Amino acid sequence: MDRGGIYIYTGESRGGFTAPWGLAVEAAAEGRPVVMIRFTESQEWEDSGFIRRMEPEIRLFHFEAAYGLSYAKKVLTVSECELLILDGILDLTQQGSITAEELEGLLENRHETDVLLTGSSVSREISCLADAVYCLEKAKP
After folding, report:
1. Residue 106 pLDDT grade (very low, low, confident, very high; cuts 50, 70, 90)
2. Tell me, what's the pLDDT at 99?
3. Is residue 23's pLDDT more than 60?
4. Contacts of 15 (CB under 8 A, 6+ apart)
């Protein structure tokens, strides 16, 4: 059995949210089920109704730290999707709401599921867990 990959998208630029959405749409178009758990305060896109029209191919959830971590573990344990996006989870590790050890424990449950982590910055400890780290930056102010 192959292990799913761990991919990190980090940076202060606007692409930190849109890049994972592009990957979610690509995966859904290939017939791969996608779950996105948002740990961010903004619900701007979810409230528009546009995102909800992508269900059931892309399922979107919005949680606070502890609940989101528990739900993500459930999703991975039962192999509920092939791509799990944890949007904003890296910011929670920087704030201390979730420890690096808790995140590492969660990722151990990934089986064949690819997991994408986003946030404005990432610690060296967490980046070492990833198969690839993408740093998004604004090229021109």
Report:
1. very high
2. 93
3. yes
4. 9, 136
Residue type, 85: I
38 forms beta bridges with 62, 87
What are the pLDDT digits (tens) for 69-102?
A: 999 999 999 999 999 999 999 999 999 999 999 9
Which residue matches tokens 């995140």?
A: 103
Structure token digits, residue 11 = 């940076």
Q: ω into residue 56 within 30 of 0, thus cis?
A: yes
Count Cα neighbours of 23 within 13 Å in the Cβ-side half-sphere. Answer: 22
**The residue type at 55:** E
Beta bridge partners of 87: 38
Domains of the chain: 6-135 (3.40.50.300)
